[in-house]
Fold these 4 entries.
Entry 1:
Amino acid sequence: MSRLIVISNRVSAPKGEAGAQGGLAVAFAAALREHKGLWFGWSGEPTDRFTGEIDYQDVRGVCTATIDLEDQDIEEYYNGYANRTLWPLFHFRVDLAEFERDFAQGYQRVNERFADTVRPLIEDDDLVWVQDYHLIPLGEELRKRELRNRLGFFLHIPWPPRHLLASLPHARELVSTMFAYDVIGFHTTEWLEAFLDYALGEMGADLLDDGTIRLGDRTVRAISCPIGIDTAEFVAAASSPQARLAYRRMKDSSDGRDLIVGVDRLDYSKGLEERFAGYERFLEEHEESRKEVYLLQIAPPSRGDVETYQRIRATLDGLSGRINGAHADLDWVPIRYVNRGFPRAVLAGVYRAARIGLVTPLRDGMNLVAKEYVAAQDPEDPGVLILSRFAGAALQMTDAVLVNPHSAEELSDAIELALKMPRDERVARWRALMDGVERQDVIWWRKRFTDALARSDQSWEDAPAAAAE
């Protein structure tokens, strides 16, 4: 059986505490144990001088290999091109994207360093799976280093429409590197179709009868493959002592009021300003019931070195303070705004205690919080998921209350609908949602992609010289 080599920007080794790691780490850990594979990436740590020295660890049967990056690499590759150029552009925020030559050069340099360092670790029969927007050109760099293995790439964020991607300097060159892969995966058919539109319309690629895409002498298969959560593990986490304690704490502190919960990384793509505006509209329009609810917004900071993220934190601090100042009473505040993260088991208990799960990104590749909220519910008395139409999850989770997060009125109406929804309807919606969460979980996602990669008939054994130079 072939080994699986996973390559990602960061490596998240398994942790000892149950439920402490994310769903992606769970999926990779299971696959790497099964295939005796390796997980390679950046350690998250800086170094004065890049050496390519690899730190190997074996944690609970998962072998990881990490490297440190120089401060300049981190600033230009990670803070720069990945998170100040590609991230906003791919989330349809070209107004926030920064196009700096140094960023692009740093991005290319780090991808070359990844390729130089990981190439000697890859054996002839290994399946190689590259993850996300940080490493788009890595496949091309590995081919230049005479890698002939089956090579896959998965994008965890949206793919932008053709007219937006055209605003990226050298977009054609970046997209052309993706044809070094054998299989490319997207969460939704929408992102897949946008990729096809660009490849065919802007680059002159051909869609072949077997569904593959040919550009010059290279052929790639693109698939939609929506990621899920480790459903069984999360259901178990929701019944753990840690979750039960969190549930009781929330119920006790709610003092009989209904909890509305939002859990999001502090990011402009998550629609937090719009969410606060919609919740404020609900408070204004429903004076008779507003003191019967409160919003708990958990928003751990991220990418604090990037000015855009500093601005959104300041904005949300101001918004939450203004709303509480305008609407709070002696014994009630409408928003509890928390800037820290919590273990997944604790979040599972919070989700279970919440009458409403508010997941309203302006644009999201998938959004697993929506699926975790559903998995944590009490089957006999579940809460209601309010979900943005612009999250990738909305294409699967059609029994949620779907909303346009840009409309404060629509968010207000959805909150009112969810609070008044009868138990029978809540159970019926939850059951339909849960069936999907159980059926297409993170293990299904991983197997769907790796099976497609293993079946790929693209062969680089006799690849033309141009494909490897």
Entry 2:
Amino acid sequence: MTTTRSDTIAPGVAAGHPATAEAGLHALAAGGTAADAAVAAVLASAAAESIFTGLGGGGFAIYFDAASREVTCLDFFCAVPGLDGDVTAGEMMPIEVAFGEVPLIYSIGGASVAVPGVPAGCGEVHRRWGTLPWDRVVEPATRIARTGALLPAEHARTLEGVGPALAYGDGDVVYRREGRYVTGGERLFHPGLEHAMAGLAEEGPSVFYTGRFGKMMVEAVRSTGGALGPGDLAAYRVRELPLREAPLAGNRVLARHDLNALIATIGALPAELPALSRPDRTVAVARTLADPQPQPQRLGDTTNVSAVDVHGNACVITTTLGLSAGVWLPGLGVNLNSMLGETELITADLAPGRRVASMMCPLVVLDADGDLVLAAGSAGASRIRTALIHTLIGTLVDGLDMPAAVARPRFHLVGTDVHAEAGVPDDELSALETAGFPVNRWNHTSHYFGGVSAVGRPGAAADPRRGGAAVC
């Protein structure tokens, strides 16, 4: 049965790192909008969460305007290079990383670098909905870049797996200390990133496209076998995307169409879901999530920021570097994306200028009157869909507050096989087995199951699986 709750939403920010969330809160305290807060937090994440994201990556944003009740989704994901036509990309470099106990082969190097979108996307979100001066929005990120940020233990565990790619080349001085990876509680510092943030604050996002950083990017990529050229950077534009929506417990869930088909999946949940017992509901959700042709289970090095301001506006931005290419802008502490090396994202229709596909899906939930209920997004590649569905069911159907909904143990399907975190109730797992689902019981919680950050009527929360933080 759906729980009725207050329409009041306290302003706040939920993000993948305490310093990231504080940067967003700083913007809100200065009188900024949800857009100012989300952009400030995203830029801060480039300094505090570079295991997952950075200025050389791409992403998506969704914005809810409380006055007009309009929802807008922006695409600033990475684009395929090659518009210049004067260079052919060389071979990518295979590198082995660990996903739990499973070794995975990724491809990095200059040939894996697609046109980044984070600077342009942050600039466009701020241009449309921000009110603070641009340099004030960038300032928290500049400050964090100057001092570095403490690495959460959860981030350090991820680094242990992906370190061979991140610590490649110039990344060695960032992610390693005396022959070992940086550990939880140590300071993560990027030499030169302060100068990149200062240039961004002073010259605007164009510095990474038609300005001096853009020229450096072309040189760095081409010198390591990539095809990215000045024409690719000059042609890059942030795009507005059509929205899809689906009903859930009397509310409307709005987001873009993503590679995971989150909105279509929510729409396929049975209408009687809120009335079902927990075991029966678990089976119904599993049947909806089951895929006879399972996608490869990749790392999902991604992070998310959700913000709501005092006026009720909401902004959610999800960004990623992929695994990272190991190609750095010299003297600027900026690592570039490896999106062309993410084989599960490469589709047959890709051509120079086209966007790479993505599973990222920031969303907002509105009530029947069009008012905001919550704003959320997640990290986790193919687990983004299930992490968000579990969280939405927790809040919209079970009436949990946001911290409880985000932290509640989850299960994820790979094909028809169920992977369940420690803590999923035994009667639900037994119901799955009775329904014919093989169940793999994990003995712990894990970042494998995604990284949700959300703000709304049920409160604010960031995923403990990934060392997140929420501040109000």
Entry 3:
Amino acid sequence: MSTVLEFDAQTSVALDRAIDALSGRRIAVLTGAGVSTDSGIPDYRGKGSRTRTPMTAQQFLSSEAARRRYWVGSHLGWRAFASADPNAGHDALAALEHAGIATGVVTQNVDGLHLRAGSRRVVELHGTMRRVICTHCGQVFDRRDLAHRVEADNPWITTPDAVELGPDGDVLPASSDGFVVPACSVCDGVLKPDVVFFGEYIPAVKFQEAQQLLAASDALLIAGSSLVVNSGIRLLERARRRRLPVVVVNRGETRADRAATVKIDAGTSEILSALTTALSR
């Protein structure tokens, strides 16, 4: 089976094998940070990514100083993070769903780019930066509204022209001195973005949604994830038990390489675009 885009010989062979493995099947998609790198959002583990020590949930909840540092960086980064646009890979997966081929997307990303690209069924395993929740009363706030509060309480804060953006929309602030941390306007409780911090578990209901999406499918496409996070491995294992074809698209090694029906070591945007073109014919 031939493809429209031009790739090197090894990639072309792998791509054709992937098309053959996925053709005529309903495909569940699992994505990681590598899908969003072409939108200007770096990943944690890709080539050239810097070493990061993300704040744990325990640190955030137990220390006011830690929350102050987090919120300065999170606010500055979110302004840049929120301006990122979906790339060709996001668009391709949305088109694959609209064509009735993909059953939906399970994503480890918190950037919301799949939804902005037009994907309708998206399971955000690690939450979303679009919302902020109160850890005491459970009240939910729109991140845009909270940003206005942050800037009103901290008029000195500015967004740099260029920030070193993190995968979860944060930056490392030069200083957090004097920063007024936003509190819940309902109960004055501690606010946190509606994302799964390091040290927290993925909500059971979210993983159930991911399992249901996979159960409605007869192939699994993994894109832009090294599968270091256990939630992805758990989905892979469920696909293996059912002996579903598994196609992995990622630059560099992943924990799924040995289990994959086909592994394509290439960028996600161009490969997902090629797969969508071929499978939609």
Entry 4:
Amino acid sequence: MNIDELYRLYTRSRKVTTDTRNIVPGSIFFALKGNSFNGNEFALSALEKEAAFAVIDDAKYGDDDRCILVPDVLQTLQLLAAYHRDQLKIPVIGITGTNGKTTTKELLNAVLAEKYVTYCTQGNLNNHIGVPLTLLAIQPDVEVAIVEMGANHQREIAGLCAIAKPNFGLITNIGKAHLEGFGGFEGVKIAKAELYDFIKETGGTIFVNGDNAILHEMLTSRGITKTVTYGEHPGNLVSGSIVFNDPLLTVSWQSAGSSGRTGTNLTGSYNLENILAAVAVGLHFGLSEEQVHKGISSYVPGNNRSQVIQTSSNTLICDYYNANPSSMQVAIDNLAAISGGHKTLILGDMFELGNESEQEHQRIVDYALKISADRTIFIGQAFYASKHNQKGIFFPDIQSAMEGIKSSPLSGSTILLKGSRGMKLEMLLPLL
């Protein structure tokens, strides 16, 4: 069966799934394989649960005429998504970057939804499987799509662009993350710039933080001039600044003929550029000041990204969905900038730093201990290697940290929780 024929089957329900637990009657099940599972084994189960068809790549599991045998299920899913993208005559905004891409994606969606029917990447579906699923979830009434693209190796963004074909692009920033896979910081720059390369080749428009020297160099070295700039400097098309950050942000912004002052549900001075990106995109797509303001002010962060939670004992800044040296440093800076009394840092190990892990963890320890905090707690084996520095409190794992906090409770403090997702810092919440 060719992609054109498969697409006609897809349009009957416009629903696909890769998980039999999420079968929608009439959908198409794609039997993906992984290191520890073979989706082909679940094809008949998917059909029993009322999937219309099951796409498989192993003939021995095709004992039903509703099974569609293809050479490679993943490749077929990607080809189908690319084919669907070709049918969509709408703006598609591709977003990548080291830090802030999910928050920026959510802000863009919140703003643009004030005028358009939008669809954006759900959760963390931003990889070679998630991007195709995102595209295939775009229904005919959608007017603007926002597709997040993640990567930890070079050429991944290029591959995702070939599927999503964005005609607008935004790189939030370039920082130290997934250094092991990218081959160092220069490798990160090369990988993220694959979005710029695609947008240039296809004649699209780049939204860019005009104050970011690294992004500016990446654009100028490619001769890209079709840009919409935002940032703190008034020379940008959209500029803005922080009015309050205590701990929630209020920002002011201005552009030619329009301006605004917006309270948000976000914490972190580092979110200013994400907010200004949403303003720039909203204005570019013809939204009014009031629509931009409403979209930003109504957005409530989730998934432990820049969330502020008030418990009976403390104010928590929950930012532990992920962590790398760049995001860790700005989160520490933000806590230092917040006015008020007692402050506590709880920092968990940063993953995927390769040969630079020891150096980067030591650098963060040194950096964190310079700010005025009542308690600075480090959790994880990488941080624990620096326990010789007696100014901090070090625990080798989350369990020992829980015991330590139980024996010496925290109260009346503004607490930053920051670490890689695998550190499971959420286990501390009942103690805080």
